[in-house]
Amino acid sequence: MNIMDAIRTRRSVRSYATDPLSPEVLERMRDALRLAPSACNFQPWHFILVSDAGIRRALAAASNNQNWMADAPLIVVGCALPDQAYQRMGGYGNSADLDVTIALDHLTLAAVAEGLGTCWIGAFDEGRVKALLNVPEGVKVVAMTPLGYPASPDLNRPLEPGKRKDESAVFSADRYGQPLPGEPG
Description:
- By secondary structure, the protein is an alpha+beta fold.
- Helices cover 32% and strands 13% of the residues.
């Protein structure tokens, strides 16, 4: 699968088969995370790969009771290490959250290419998640995703047309709000 097919096919999967991930697939998923770009290549991240069923259930409960998450054979928890990040992103900010987000996005696309599903989880109680996973002070839980095979093969098909905003709503030419060439102004 080429990258544009993966982008067009990726969707949030909320129903998983119980099939385990092979060691080879898991290695490719780890590579997708580890090889992602980061500001100044500082790689201010740590990923917790949760396969223990009890911990997966507890994470789902800490994620607004999204219990379906626990059905996936793995939950990937993306943690940011702010003290190790580039400190002047945009002239003022810390790159850690963005760097973790980029890595998780690489994972979601690599997962599609493997026939796997993911679902970006941003609704969670960080304090509960940190306590469950022994995440140290100073480390931030940015997001999580279940990772596994979709329960239905229909979940790995391209998105329907019309589900995304029109190009004129998301792009400008040269300056904010200026229409693209050939777009009505």
